[in-house]
Amino acid sequence: MRKTKEVFYSDKKYKISEMPAMQAMNFIEDILRLGASSANADRVKALVSVFFKTGQETDIKEDENSSKDFGAVLIEFVLGIISRCDRNERKQLHSDLLTCISYVQAHELGANTIPLDLSNVDHLVENQIILLKLFWEVLKLNYDFLGNVAGSTVNSLRDQITKQ
Fold it and tell me: Where are the domains of the chain?
């Protein structure tokens, strides 16, 4: 069963759902590919090292504060890559993120969920700040685990990713 959570922005309720496994993998691979072809190649190498180290290391120590910091760094990195993409690539990445968001419309008989997509997002999300926060929630739900499994590599990796 996929993880879900509910969030509220401007008195509106949204349901955030985890991506299916292949969609999540394709999304992060697209981000890494796009990032590697940009001025962020060193940052992408640092992120890729997490993918490979997490599968190989067995004595990883988890540091809750570091993992949260790493998760935030990862999400900021992903949103930064998306912002540097051309319009068509951005549209596809936005579409992937939107598939994880539903607007929860309350009425007298209960609630109706309306999945967001490119055709209805402007009617169901009040402004771009809320949309960005919703994207942030999607990324946290889908990829925050990387911070937990990265363990002892997080501090040095965070320094590599965030350096200008």
Answer: 4-157
